[in-house]
Amino acid sequence: MSIWEYANPKKFMQTSAWALPWALAATVLCLSVGLIWGFFFTPDDYKQGATVKIIYLHVPAAMMAINAWVMMLVASLIWIVRRHHVSALAAKAAAPVGLTFTLIALVTGALWGQPMWGTWWAWDPRLTSFLILCLFYMGYIALWSAVEDPDTAADLTGVLCIVGSVFAVLSRYAVNFWNQGLHQGASLSMDAKENVSDVFWIPLVICIAGFILLFVTLVLMRTRTEIRARRVAALLARERLA
Amino acid sequence: MIALLARDLRLAVRAGGGFGLGLAFFLLVAVLVPLGVGPQGDTLARIAPGILWVGALLACLLSLDRIFALDFEDGSLDLLATSPVPMEGAVAVKALAHWLVTGLPLTLAAPVLGVLLYLPGPGYLWLVVSLALGTPALSVIGAFGAALVVGLKRGGLLMSLLVLPLYVPTLIFGAEVVKRGAAGMEVATPLALLAGITAGALALLPFAAAAAIRVNLR
Amino acid sequence: MMPDLGKYAFAVLASYGATIVLIGALVALSFRQRARVKKTLDEVEARAAAQTGKNDG
């Protein structure tokens, strides 16, 4: 038994068919418990008032936006080193999910920033790096859809993902440097996590689990779709030959 | 490899080769921005480092798709792939040729445009230094982007989308050097980081670009 | 039942609304793609099976 067993599309389809309903059920359970708890049954923060409820969307979405890219990086590396098609397709399947999480993080951040900081947008290092991450996702998805041959597309996007990861990390630090150079000391601290009490912490953890499960479910489902699409293409090619 | 460099340079300088277009574009940016922003000296002086760097970056982007596209169309890229020169070396030489016809003229022209934008006195030296250090990175990152889209029909727009996010660190550190230099502050830290990014890009990206070209030629 | 959101009602409700819309769109898109690809695959596989059956017989 090894993890590479799941690189076989057939085995992956069997296992994921079994796992998908469970993952879906767990996602719905976690997200509804976490979000309903967060929205209806948490007190207001003494400083931030009701806006603290946005944390249950903003923080998990932001975490998963980054984790989705890391997952794509790992999947791309596996594809490039070991040439397992499922891996490349999983990276392709994850990109739109990651982009959606990035957009959620940006939108909820803007809506949260407006009453708290008095502005929809600030060139805060974190905000800026999320905008750049958003651009990386868009480029990655655009390259997938632009290249027709699936293996070529997988190779090119894999290389792009690896190079992009290096530059995304560089940008993260560059942006930090750039903003400190402008405004000495960040007045807009976004580190809410450090002083969160249990009342907010427990539903937040449930929401984070919910978003992780949502990501897993969607990626499993979308990867299955991609594998099926591949099979359709292969069968159609065989039909044309016959 | 030297023959390849000479050939690329000759093709670029020849009429219709695109040499000078980037330079003209750079000039246009430097003229259009004051027209849009207004002629106030202090405003222009404050944004001059950023404008000059963004202008140089866009001018660089303009000519990127020429690095490989023409050679791909007429088949000379296939010849290069079978030649004894490793593809990594060919990519590096082509990026160097691109820098010689784009990055170097931009670097030399930048001080003149700095005058148009009222760049403060001490900034000129650092403008030239930062562009000289940063534009090679722009060329080699661009060569990577061009290698990714080399087989595509309309790759130009897609390439901009892929390359521009990769330019972010270079732009930030480059403009920071000029900004600090113009304000008379120390520039060693951003300059070192800029040089580091350029060195890293020069060392590693030819391999990534060569891999992408091999995939595209398959 | 509705919690009192005070003056921040817009920010909170818009955040939840935007998130639900975005995730809903992604989920709907994923399910639609899945249904479409599954249908095509079934058709093509049925055709392929018929083809091999004819060749064998």
Give your account of this protein's structure.
The complex is a heterotrimer of chains A (242), B (218) and C (57). Chain A has 242 residues and is an all-alpha fold. Chain A has one domain: Four Helix Bundle (Hemerythrin (Met), subunit A), CATH 1.20.120. Chain A is built from 6 helices and no strands. Chain A starts with 8 loop residues before the first helix and ends with a helix. About 4% of the residues of chain A have low confidence. Chain B has one domain. Chain B has 218 residues and is mainly alpha-helical. The mean pLDDT of chain B is 86. Chain B starts with a helix and ends with a helix. In chain B, helix 2 packs parallel to helix 6, helix 3 runs parallel beside helix 7 and helix 7 packs antiparallel against helix 8. Helix content of chain B is 81%, strand content 0%. Chain C has 57 residues and is mainly alpha-helical. Chain C contains 1 helix and no strands. The model of chain C has no long low-confidence stretch (mean pLDDT 83). The N and C termini of chain C lie far apart (69 Å). The longest helix of chain C has 48 residues. Chains A and C meet through helix 1, helix 2, helix 3 and helix 6 of A and helix 1 of C.
Distance between the termini of chain B: 23 Å
Low-confidence stretches of chain C: none
Number of strands of chain C: 0
> How far apart are the termini of chain C?
69 Å
Structural class of chain B: mainly alpha
Query: For the report, how would you describe the main beta sheet of chain B?
Result: none
How many β-strands of chain B, per DSSP?
Answer: 0
Arithmetic mean of pLDDT of chain B: 86
Summed up, what is this model?
Chain B is mainly alpha-helical and 218 residues long.
List keywords for this structure.
heterotrimer; A: 242 residues; mainly alpha; Four Helix Bundle (Hemerythrin (Met), subunit A); 6 helices; C: 57 residues
Describe the secondary structure blueprint for this structure.
The complex is a heterotrimer of chains A (242), B (218) and C (57).
Chain A (H helix, E strand, L loop, with lengths): L8 H32 L14 H28 L2 H33 L7 H22 L3 H33 L15 H44 L1
Chain B lengths: L1 H12 L7 H17 L3 H22 L6 H5 L2 H7 L4 H30 L6 H26 L6 H28 L5 H30 L1
Helix pairs in contact in B: 1-6, 2-3, 2-6, 3-6, 3-7, 3-8, 6-7, 6-9, 7-8, 7-9, 8-9
Chain C lengths: L8 H48 L1
